[in-house]
TrEMBL record:
InterPro entries in the record: Glutamyl_endopeptidase, Peptidase_S1_PA, Peptidase_S1_PA_chymotrypsin, Peptidase_S1B, Trypsin_dom, TRYPSIN_HIS
Encoding gene, per UniProt annotation: LOC108705812
Organism: Xenopus laevis (African clawed frog)
EC number of this enzyme: 3.4.21.-
Record's keyword annotation contains Protease: yes
PROSITE patterns, per the entry: TRYPSIN_HIS
Signal peptide (UniProt feature, chain positions): 1-22
Stretches assigned to the Peptidase S1 domain: 128-363
Statement: the UniProt record of this protein carries the keyword Hydrolase: yes
Main location: secreted
Superkingdom field: Eukaryota
SUPFAM superfamilies membership: Trypsin-like serine proteases
The name this protein goes by in its record: Serine protease
């Protein structure tokens, strides 16, 4: 397949910010079809060795709420190229910066960005996930713990999606990022499983983390530049590549539909909240507002849940089956000024078509496998 000529910037922008309106049966929430752009590396430059001097902060807060985000100016094509450039950190401490080109393969106009009315719902509680049957089963088994304290989600044989702030504070890498590891909950038996028999079914003594080292990480420049400021939050995601395959089932990533197309308007995620050490905590709640890059909700969550993959389950028409996909990354708290009242929201970064193209490229290493979404 050949890339078509680069289209004028305005045209590119339009197609990056629009999508094909989904067919949506009221009974069956269906995955929309998106036009995914192509992101290709154009140049790679070496950077100085990484500094690991930032104190890990498990939460990010920003005073720019949904309204502020909605009325901030639209990024230009050059802005987007800049935000989508990315830094790669290797386990030996060396770093590279990759500049990218953004292309669309076909052009057709569309509706502008959608805007939904703000609605505030009460929040739902959280559920501890107990018992190996649940913990070791999909989708909970895709939640892993980062040695820096956050949560991540398995998105490929060797890849974990998480929040950027779990490894980088916008200026520098956090102290624990140099020897970053990913923890998998595994059952541990008192005697190594020797006494297992019919009358004594497999009841593990307890669950324990087994760790795998991270080989390299990718962080978008939009985060590094932004330094967790107004636009920075939009780029609070990172991808980790493990030294070896984890051999578990993973969850696919998908482009985030608008909140109004989600089943029940809800999102789901599981994470290792720090107020419940050693427990995987599951929750779901309604999306209360959204911008092009963020989903606002009031799911209960404590900092350790940062980096959790936010997922939904919808019907995939082409495959004629239900599919669960990660459509966002839980970032953290945000105080939003609403009519003079400070309101506490939890924010998730949406996987937009552009971010999908980038993360997919990081996973697959080529764009051809990232065309179909
Ligand atoms: C963020 O975390 C710090 C310390 O962990 C805490 O003091 C602060 O209140 C938290 N901020 C928010 C908005 O949750
Ligand atoms: C670190 O690792 C990367 C990737 O494996 C390699 O390209 C680079 O040369 C290494 N740097 C040093 C200083 O060893
Ligand atoms: C099964 O395990 C229980 C508890 O460890 C033990 O008391 C019992 O003798 C075992 N039965 C057999 C058939 O090994």
């Amino acid at each position: 397949m050949m890339l078509e000529e680069r289209l004028p910037a305005v045209c590119v922008l339009l197609s990056l910010l629009t999508f094909v309106e989904p067919y949506n049966s009221p009974l069956k929430p269906t995955w929309p079809n998106y036009k995914v752009p192509v992101i290709l590396p154009q140049s790679i430059s070496k950077l100085d060795k990484a500094q690991f001097d930032a104190d890990p902060s498990l939460n990010v807060s920003s005073s720019c709420g949904a309204e502020c985000h909605k009325y901030s100016s639209m990024p230009t094509y050059e802005d987007l190229r800049d935000y989508m450039a990315y830094e790669t950190l290797y386990s030996n401490g060396s770093r590279t910066m990759t500049n990218v080109g953004i292309y669309v393969l076909s052009s057709s106009g569309g509706e502008g960005r959608s805007r939904t009315k703000r609605q505030i719902y009460g929040h739902d509680g959280r559920f501890n996930i107990y018992g190996k049957d649940f913990l070791l089963n999909y989708p909970f088994s895709t939640s892993v713990k980062l040695s820096t304290g956050c949560t991540g989600t398995l998105v490929a044989e060797k890849h974990v999606l998480t929040a950027a702030h779990c490894i980088h504070d916008g200026k520098s890498y956090v102290k624990g990022a140099q020897k970053l590891k990913v923890g998998f909950l595994k059952p541990r038996y008192k005697d190594g499983g020797k006494s297992l028999n019919q009358t004594n079914p497999r009841i593990p003594e307890k669950m324990k983390f087994q760790w795998i080292r991270v080989k390299r990480t990718h962080v978008p420049k939009g985060w590094i530049k932004g330094n967790a400021n107004d636009i920075g939050m939009d780029y609070d995601y990172a991808l980790l590549e493990l030294k070896k395959p984890h051999k578990r089932k993973y969850m696919m990533i998908g482009v985030s539909p608008s909140g109004r197309y989600l089943p029940g308007g809800r999102i789901h995620f599981s994470g290792y909240d720090n107020d419940r050490p050693g427990n995987l905590v599951y929750r779901f709640c309604e999306v209360t507002d959204e911008t092009y890059d963020l989903l606002y909700q009031q799911c209960d969550a404590q900092p350790g849940a940062s980096g959790s993959g936010v997922y939904v389950r919808m019907w995939k028409r082409q495959k004629q089956k239900w599919e669960r996909k990660i459509i966002g990354i839980f970032s953290g708290h945000q105080w939003v000024d609403k009519d003079g009242d400070k309101q506490d929201f939890n924010v998730a970064v949406r996987i937009t078509p552009l971010k999908y193209a980038q993360i997919c490229f990081w996973i697959k290493g080529n764009y051809a496998d990232c065309r179909d979404e």
